[in-house]
Amino acid sequence: MSQESFDVIVVGGGNAALSAALSAAEQGAKVALLERAPEEKRGGNSKFTGGGFRMVHHGAEDIKRIVPDLSDAEIARTDFGEYSAETYLDDLGRITQYFIDPDLAETLVQNSTDTVHWLMGRGVKFLPNFGRQAYNHEGRFKFFGGVVIYANGGGAGLVESEYKAAAKHGITVHYGARVRGIVRGQHGVEAVRVLIDNVEHAIRTRSVVLACGGFEANREWRTRYLGPGWDMAKVRGTRYNTGDGIEMALAIGAQSYGQWSGCHAVAWERYANDYGDVDGQHSAGYRHSYPFSIMVNANGERFVDEGADFRNYTYAKYGRVVLAQPGGYAWQVFDGQVMHLLRDEYKMRGATKVRADSLEELVQRMQDVNPAAFMKTINEYNAAVKRDVKFDPNIKDGRSTTGLAVNKTNWANTIEQPPFEAYSVGCGITFTFGGLKINTDAQVLDIEDNAIPGLYAAGELVGGLFYFNYPGSAGLMAGAVFGRIAGRGAGGFALNRA
Ligand SMILES: Cc1cc2nc3c(=O)[nH]c(=O)nc-3n(C[C@H](O)[C@H](O)[C@H](O)COP(=O)(O)OP(=O)(O)OC[C@H]3O[C@@H](n4cnc5c(N)ncnc54)[C@H](O)[C@@H]3O)c2cc1C
Q: How much is the pTM?
């Protein structure tokens, strides 16, 4: 047993863990954060994010409170819309086919704005996400998908600010510390077992917050729980989230919860590395402009409604759809009319891309797509587009196709104006949906829904929030909301127990 002992041990080193550690320290607890990654790779998936936060707001005034530098000119040419608690709850319900745990949903939504302000108080700066969440269309921006703000510096900026705040709060941080087990005694958790340099230590504690991610980086578990073929998916973010937290909680009686066969997975650069690389161009893998494309598979056929909804509400389920295509890949095809709308990643090094001045030439360059079927698909698609409906990327414009086996509901531009570009995508997994059951105080529950004394959880490893799909930017928000609650609970529990 190590000589060290703490009131609260937080397992993990991403946004949920840091939120928990800060909140526990604010209770006056002595806190340690144990991060499996080495220091230079700290920050988990949170570090890989764009830093978007989905929160309740009621328009420009609320945004100005979060972004004080917002200028009058910016306000004048922007429609921030409103994202009410009702709309947020409706989105969570609709997106998850109403499987979401209603109490967790309510907790997430009701605490969202306040938690953003709380993070601001801990040094995180937020900015409006022009360009990504609002297109410049005819001189005006309109936020289209319920998300307005992102952390300055994206995910890297977010976790950097949070680690700075952790240092200020006197939180002990150990890197390269892989927690493998929780010791449970008569009155609750008593210690964690942790591997440091492959040597096992036990560190005493009065409470534990698990915030160490899902099992997306565990190839074997992916195949076991998500199903055959998922071993072939690329991991978009950290390599360290292999399900340890879930496994060690189940081992001491925690209840499994949520959709274990479900995950957040996107259309991602087909030849991306197996894992994300925080030091490299990890964001180069994004291919999120597909609502303005048509996607075809190896048979040259369309297979999904690219314009069913805003990207925020479809991207997290389309990775699975791509994985299910022959060979597990697809191509996104754009023409000259929409090229200006492509996100920056399309221009980055490493994109599997072909370009041509005719569609016949383009498909020859795509090589692994049936050319005759591709031409037939394009011709039928072009003929089916409602050309008389005006295109507008900031609204669901209803410019659709009619009469196709797979129609496109919005943003259906014809593919006819050179130059033509096509980008090859595979499946990139972001995080898994199955995990542990918690209550609204973020306490981990056993099979009889009783809280395991001293054990709390937050972030990806919490089950019950997302099923089948996910509304963009709810992950960081959920991690911060439940991390903050977990830290508060764990700190209070530890100090009362002392
Ligand atoms: C490319 C990409 C972009 C994204 N963009 C967004 C976005 O803009 N907005 C949004 O809301 N969400 C986004 N997400 C999703 C978001 O990353 C997650 O929802 C969120 O970061 C999860 O936070 P977390 O703290 O639970 O997990 P993580 O940030 O992954 O942290 C888990 C931590 O646990 C550590 N760990 C794992 N096992 C152990 C162990 N045994 N012992 C100790 N430590 C351990 C890991 O090293 C890691 O530090 C994105 C994800 C990716 C990959």
A: 0.96
- Atom number in ligand 1 closest to CA 154: 8
**Whole-angstrom distance, CA of residue 316 vs CA of residue 456:** 27
CA distance 186 to 163: 34
Question: How far, in Å, from the CA of 284 to the mean position of ligand 1?
Answer: 18
Ligand 1 binding pocket (C-beta < 6 A) is 11-17, 34-37, 43-46, 48-52, 177-179, 211-213, 236-238, 240-241, 244, 430-431, 459-460, 473-477, 479
Q: For 314-344, write each residue's pLDDT tens digit.
A: 999 999 999 999 999 999 999 999 999 999 8
Position 448 confidence tier, pLDDT thresholds 50, 70, 90:
very high
Q: Is 1 a residue whose pLDDT tops 60?
A: no
pLDDT higher than 90, residue 27: yes
All residues at 6 or more sequence positions from 186 whose CB lies less than 8 Å from its CB, including other chains? none
Q: At what angle do helices 15-26 and 474-497 cross, to 10 degrees?
A: 30
- Site to probe by mutation for ligand 1, drawn from 212, 239, 244, 264 as the one with most ligand atoms within 8 Å of Cβ, is 212
Tokens representing residue 33 in the block: 């954060």
Gap from CA of 16 to ligand 1 centroid (Å): 8
Residue 286 CA: which ligand 1 atom is closest?
1
Burial readout 443-466 (b: 16 or more C-beta within 10 A, e: otherwise): bbbeeeeebbbbbbbbbbbbbbbb
Axis crossing angle, helix 359-366 with helix 371-384, rounded to the nearest 10: 140
Which one of 10, 208, 465, 476 would you pick to mutate in the ligand 1 pocket, going by the greatest count of ligand atoms within 8 A of its CB? 476
Q: Where are the alpha helices (DSSP H) in 53-144?
A: 60-66, 72-76, 85-95, 102-121
User: Looking at per-residue confidence, does 226 or 135 come out higher?
Assistant: 226
Beta-sheet pairing, 172-174 with 31-34: parallel
CA proximity to 362, closest of 273, 309, 423 = 423
**Quick check: helix, strand or coil at residue 288?**
coil
230 CA to centre of ligand 1 in angstroms: 19
Could you read off the pLDDT of 169-209 as tens digits, one per residue?
999 999 999 999 999 999 899 999 999 988 999 999 999 99
DSSP-assigned beta bridge partners for residue 334: 421
How many helices (H) does the chain have, and how many strands (E)? 13, 22
Identify the CA nearest to 415 among candidates 353, 374, 352, 359: 359
* Percent of the chain predicted with pLDDT > 70: 98
